[in-house]
Automatic annotation (TrEMBL):
Name listed for the protein in its UniProt record: Cytochrome c oxidase assembly factor 3
Transmembrane spans: 37-57
Upper lineage: Eukaryota, Metazoa, Spiralia, Lophotrochozoa, Platyhelminthes
Keyword match Transmembrane helix: yes
This protein's UniProt keywords: Membrane, Transmembrane, Transmembrane helix
Amino acid sequence: MSDKPSPDILDRIIRDTEKRNVTRSFLVRSHNRANRIVLATCSSMALGIYLWSLYSISRGRNLDSSFDKLPDYTPGKH
């Protein structure tokens, strides 16, 4: 008996490794796609908030002016 494995076993190992590599690459691509979607959403929200702040400041209003219009709290009323 020789120390070298048979070529059939090596071919099977190579095929299995290639299949696992393809599966792993699909998984990595799907994670990257999801990460890009989250990145785009968060970036657009941050940009929108920033632009809204600039717009509000240019109009001479404070962002918290809407909170001043809340009614006073009276105990016992719901």
